[in-house]
Amino acid sequence: MLELLEISGSLNMIGYGLATIGPGIGVAMVFSSVINGTARQPEARGAMMGTAWIGFAIVEALAIIGIALAFVLK
């Protein structure tokens, strides 16, 4: 007869693992918009890259807050 496996650990980490999909999609959308904008108007690349880095930082800050909460709520 098969014995049940005992699973130990925190479900917070599984939740955070699933929550990383959001920032991943967010970063992809930020830089895909910059690539699209650069293809349409190459001379505006500098202005778009500055905005892209700000957007990237905000999206990643949300991911860092998420992992901090996952550890705090453990």
UniProtKB/TrEMBL annotation:
Topology in membrane: Multi-pass membrane protein
GO CC annotations, alphabetized: plasma membrane; proton-transporting ATP synthase complex; proton-transporting two-sector ATPase complex, proton-transporting domain
Keywords: ATP synthesis, Cell membrane, CF(0), Hydrogen ion transport, Ion transport, Lipid-binding, Membrane, Transmembrane, Transmembrane helix, Transport
Matching Gene3D superfamilies: F1F0 ATP synthase subunit C (1.20.20.10)
Transmembrane among keywords: yes
Entry keyword Amino-acid biosynthesis: no
Family per similarity comment: Belongs to the ATPase C chain family.
Protein name: ATP synthase subunit c
Natural source organism: Propioniciclava tarda
